[in-house]
Amino acid sequence: MRKTARMSAFQVLFGYDQGNSDGEQTLSMLVQENELTAKDIEYVHFIIQQYEQHKNEIDEIIARHLTKQWSLARLGAVERTILRLGALEILFVDDVPQRVAINEALEMAKLFADHQSTAIINGVLDKIN
Questions:
Q1: CA distances from 96 to 63, 92, 101, 117 (A)
Q2: 25, 32, 84, 94: least buried by Cβ within 10 Å?
């Protein structure tokens, strides 16, 4: 299961969104706090690499699927990060089915975001393929 790795990747990407450019330091802290396995660390590194390589593309795809009253800048940082991670998994992680990526994003939203955010996250990620 990748739940712990996914949650750690979320925290690193959230840090990026907030201006923390030292993802490796954040990951080192998360390794100690969450007892990440080597496989978890490998997955987080892969997510970080894909995010750094495709950030603009991911943001453009998300923006295309937001309704007219929303923009990436208008979304909260938590929602924006969950959308980025979900979109990244849909687009660039071959062994994560779209439904799984969406479900995991919705589970994160239930933990960290406003309850109304799940509808936006589900709607946007469902349109990405």
A1: 22, 9, 6, 22
A2: 94
Q: What ranges do the domains of the chain cover?
A: 3-127
* CA 109 to centroid of chain Cα atoms: 10
Within 10 A of 127 (CB to CB), how many other CB atoms are there?
A: 12
In this structure, of 52-61, 67-76, 86-95, the range with the lowest mean pLDDT score is: 67-76
- Look at the domain 3-127 and name its fold: N-utilizing Substance Protein B Homolog; Chain A (1.10.940)
User: 3-state secondary structure string, 96-122?
Assistant: CCHHHHHHHHHHHHHHHCCCCHHHHHH
Q: Is the pTM of this model over 0.85?
A: yes
Positive/negative CA dihedral, 77, 78, 80, 81: positive
74: helix, coil or strand? coil
Span 73-87, pLDDT tens digits:
899 999 999 999 999
